[in-house]
Specification:
Blueprint: H1 3-16, H2 19-36, E1 44-51, H3 57-64, E2 77-85, E3 92-100, E4 122-129, H4 133-161, H5 163-172, E5 194-199, H6 201-204, H7 209-225, E6 229-232, H8 237-252, E7 260-261, E8 269-270, H9 277-280, H10 287-290, H11 298-309, H12 315-322, H13 333-351, H14 354-366
Parallel strand pairs: 1-3, 1-4, 4-5, 5-6
Antiparallel strand pairs: 2-3, 6-8, 7-8
Helix pairs in contact: 4-5, 7-11
Length: 367
């Protein structure tokens, strides 16, 4: 057989195995191993940052990755990664960092990074802007509900594929709570590890003491109810180091801190499972008023108390602000002009008559 023909045949065989096919084979290989073992890729974890718009999520990620660069606005869903060396001649741990931009306006994107393949090594970091207390509850509630609903669906799907893995996820929910904790029957842990970070503490510390008390107690209750860790941070180097330690624990599995600070006059720092309803106390409202607040659950009661002092902004106003297409920080004159033109075209087709549509396109051709 001709050597040239043999060489050509070999090249053809090699080309048939494209990078896409190799990638698919690797994914299938991981899935098959996951069905036989515990399914978690050792040394590889994911951390998903959600929270207040302009609340400091990007800054926190850059700080954790030792990147000295200015933070840029997050457009939608952004990804980066970090590596950490365990020791000499050992593979590096890899941490996948996801960040959801837009506050609560892009909830549908939550489903992209959280899948059956990533769930068992996934953690959530909720960053709340303490300097905007009127937006705090709605931001927290919408993001946690949307994330929890999606995670619950993924667990159900995982259970059909790998019942052992799904069972491990459910058991892990309670890992931060001691078996003899007095509140064990009164809380509902988040399905995957959760950390709540209150940002911009430097502004918050100048609030009226009573307002600080309500915010602190409310966040302590929410964090404890969901089995989450809670901490406040700012530009202070000491607070940034504490925050970095918490994120490193999620991303690289370093030892969890056991320190605690529940003094409302200082930055809160409470590791999951170390707080209690007894220490938190009842909602900060006179006993005579509690009976007037009709609530079907403790969470709803705390919400009513909180929103009484910090009423949320008008929902329609929030929606207008949260539309990325109309956000001034993303303005581009040429693109925006084309968008206006397209909107006019759509309006003509929806509302206009045939004559109006014909005149519109005649004017368009003339211009």
């Amino acid at each position: 057989m001709c050597p040239l023909y043999i060489a050509f045949s070999l090249i053809t065989v090699v080309k048939l195995e494209t990078l896409w096919e190799i990638a698919k084979a690797e994914v299938e290989k991981k899935r098959s191993h996951g069905s036989e073992g515990n399914g978690a890729d050792i040394g590889e974890k994911s951390v998903f940052f959600i929270g207040s718009k302009n609340g400091g999520k990007t800054t926190i990620i850059l700080r954790c990755l030792d990147r000295d660069e200015p933070a840029k606005p997050t457009l939608a869903l952004e990804y980066t990664y970090g590596r950490r060396t365990k020791g000499h001649n050992t593979p590096k741990d890899i941490a996948h960092f996801w960040e959801l931009g837009g506050g609560t306006s892009l909830l549908d994107l939550i489903s992209i990074p959280i899948t059956c393949d990533t769930l068992r090594t996934f953690s959530i970091v909720l960053v709340l802007d303490l300097s905007k207390p009127n937006d705090l509850w709605s931001t927290m509630e919408n993001l946690l509900q949307a994330t929890k609903s999606h995670v619950d669906r993924v667990i159900l799907k995982l259970g059909k594929m790998n019942s052992k893995a799904a069972s491990e996820v459910r058991q892990k929910m309670w890992s931060g709570m001691q078996k003899d904790h007095p509140d064990r029957e009164l809380i509902d842990p988040f399905p995957i590890p959760l950390v709540i970070i209150g940002s911009k503490y430097d502004i918050f510390q100048d609030f009226d003491p009573e307002k600080r008390k309500v915010i602190c107690k409310t966040l302590r209750f929410v964090a404890h109810y969901y089995g989450a860790s809670l901490m406040f941070t700012s530009k202070s180097e000491a607070l940034l180091l504490k925050m970095r330690g918490v994120i490193n624990q999620l991303a690289f599995g370093v030892d969890k801190s056991k320190s605690i600070c529940v003094d409302q006059n200082k930055p809160l720092f409470i590791t999951a499972g170390l707080d209690s309803l007894c220490q938190i106390g009842s909602p900060p409202v006179p006993d005579s008023d509690i009976g007037k607040l009709q609530a079907h659950s403790p969470m709803e009661l705390w919400k009513k108390v909180y929103e009484k002092l910090f009423p949320p902004k008008n929902i329609s106003t929030l929606k207008a602000i949260q539309d990325p297409a109309r956000d001034p920080q993303y303005a581009e004159s040429e693109v925006d002009e084309m968008r206006v033109q397209k909107d006019q075209v759509m309006q003509i087709f929806v509302l206009g008559t045939g004559t109006v549509q014909e005149k519109f396109f005649q004017d368009l051709e003339t211009n």
